[in-house]
């Protein structure tokens, strides 16, 4: 009897690993097929961040395998698309709109992002904003707080993303550095 239970357990583990690797491989290919989007960064096989996609790119984004789009840019951001949510949903993807004010990111904004990310667990996600500053910052916080990455290495990636935005390098935007530090300290103490 014990041998039969052990064999069943081993078989179930093999099936679970096979299914997981199938979906991981499927997700990994999704970002290979993404259209060229401003300042895009692939963070993992299921998570990318970018600047604002163009209106016509949402068809290609969906075709690439992205299942969830999280938009952190307010409606008054340059190049924003008024009907973005409709475009995303028309293409079969989920849409979350969390307008983060550039000069005043809040802990409530980040809590909404965390909830959207937790809701998207197991799905391929594209988080974006105007130039991938807000999005990459929120992805950084999410990855560090969920233990998905080394905090120091991920901060280096974050700085590299922000360095593409002349005049908005992370070292030159103290309110965002403070927001990142405060959010990490606040979440880690909970």
Short descriptors:
single chain; 190 residues; alpha/beta; Protein-Tyrosine Phosphatase, Chain A; five-stranded mixed beta sheet; 7 helices; 52% helix; 11% strand
Describe the structure.
A 5-stranded mixed sheet has the order 1-2-5-3-4, with helices on both faces. The protein has helices at 2-32, 57-63, 84-90, 107-119, 134-145, 151-163, 174-188; strands at residues 41-44, 47-50, 68-71, 94-97, 125-128. The chain has 7 helices and 5 strands. With 190 residues, the chain is α/β, with parallel strands linked by helices. Helix 5 packs parallel to helix 7.
How is this structure best summarized?
The protein has 190 residues and is α/β, with parallel strands linked by helices. It has seven helices and five strands.
Protein topology:
Layout: H1 2-32, E1 41-44, E2 47-50, H2 57-63, E3 68-71, H3 84-90, E4 94-97, H4 107-119, E5 125-128, H5 134-145, H6 151-163, H7 174-188
Parallel strand pairs: 2-5, 3-4, 3-5
Antiparallel strand pairs: 1-2
In the CATH hierarchy, the third-tier topology is known as Protein-Tyrosine Phosphatase, Chain A
> Structural class from helices and strands?
alpha/beta
Radius of gyration: 18 Å
The average pLDDT value, as a whole number, equals 86
User: How many β strands by DSSP?
Assistant: 5
Strand order of the largest sheet: 1-2-5-3-4
- CATH architecture type: Alpha-Beta Complex
Number of domains: 1
- SSE sequence, one letter per element: HEEHEHEHEHHH
Number of helical stretches of at least 4 residues: 7
What is the molecular shape?
Answer: globular
Mind telling me the CATH class?
A: Alpha Beta
CATH H-level superfamily title = Protein tyrosine phosphatase superfamily
Largest sheet: 5 strands, mixed
Q: What amount of the residues lies in strands? A: 5-15%
